[in-house]
Amino acid sequence: MSASYKGMLQPGQIIRPLVKQSDIPQLVNRIFGLTTVSVKELNSYDDKNFHIKVESTINNPHIKEIFPNGYVLKILNSMDSMNEKLVDAQNEAMLFLHSRGFNVPEPQKNIHGTFKTLERFSMSSDELVKNNVNEQLCGLHIVRLLTFIEGKILHQVPYTAELSFECGAYIAKLDNELKDFPNEDLKLRKFLWMLDSIPELSKYVYAVKDEKCIQLVQEILEAWKLNVMPEIPGLEKGVLHGDFNEQNIIVNAKPCEPITFHIDGLLDFGDMQYSCYLFEIAIGIMYQMVDVKCMPPSDAGGYMLAGYLTQRSLSETEWNILKECVAARFAQSLVMGAYSYDQDPGNEYLLITAAKGWDILFHFWNTPKEDIISHWKKIIKSYKNKN
Prior knowledge:
Blueprint: H1 3-6, H2 24-32, E1 34-42, E2 48-58, E3 71-75, H3 84-99, E4 107-108, E5 117-120, H4 125-130, E6 140-147, E7 152-153, H5 161-177, H6 184-188, H7 211-228, E8 237-240, E9 249-254, E10 257-266, E11 273-276, H8 277-291, H9 297-308, H10 316-343, H11 354-366, H12 369-386
Antiparallel strand pairs: 1-2, 2-3, 3-6, 4-6, 5-6, 7-9, 8-11, 9-10
Helix pairs in contact: 5-8, 5-9, 7-10, 8-9, 8-10, 9-12, 10-11
């Protein structure tokens, strides 16, 4: 099995679907038997996602009624599309969590009665030249339809200690629930955005232009090699969401409390994996830190841990390497954001972390580990005493 088949992106490889928004209505009608009335492209890293709303007419025996909030048409990148069993696992996980009361997207069957179909998207000769793409790279892409979860994303609302606490408790509950979702295909998955793949970052550091930033990443990679890698075999593992970030968390406010937001749902199961539970909370802490505005970044991590620890525990080993795991996710997001922007100039979504991420990472990395852990434990203790 080749490295790219397993999901390990190679430098220079183009995997994003080359599809135009104007093609979406015809695609939706042909595959799902629905008539599109509006199409809006959504932010995405390697896939193409479109929020669509449709007419009430249904020409699909497998869809009984129209979902009122519309749907997300998800066109998967060519690399992940090569592993259909992985996509099946993601669909099954969403259906599993939906049945357990989690507000997550629900896959919809196409006219053939399946949850996915494989499509090839072609471009004209002029478009191939304009996009600097070889025709052989216009690969096959899996197409799915998911229900659209209404609400604001976490990025759009002010963070509070309570909201960070809820985030920690939520992801811990999700991980606990997924213990009842065994899947052998997820155990075989290896791809670049797993924290297990941190050593692969060395291939992409060239995309970072600042020498100080390059040196910082190299320090983190060395710390990962020395401190984290020897501990990975002994860490508790399970099925993870894998990308618990501010763009994937849905929040809503109650009518009686219009300015107080609570977690209401979770999106994007494309990074699902079987890995260390510690990595799930480390990923969540990193994204909380990079986006928070109403408190020091590190505080958000403390409140998130306070929530997490109401549902799960951390071993002494996990506490000892938590800083390195959080820093590694920072490095991963920043390096791959720089690399992906080189491949897709103009996609500003790829640079969200970079806006503040480097400064936060420099401060975080240069703060002694003992000070960080002590600060987080004080927040956890104070939150427990307050409640």
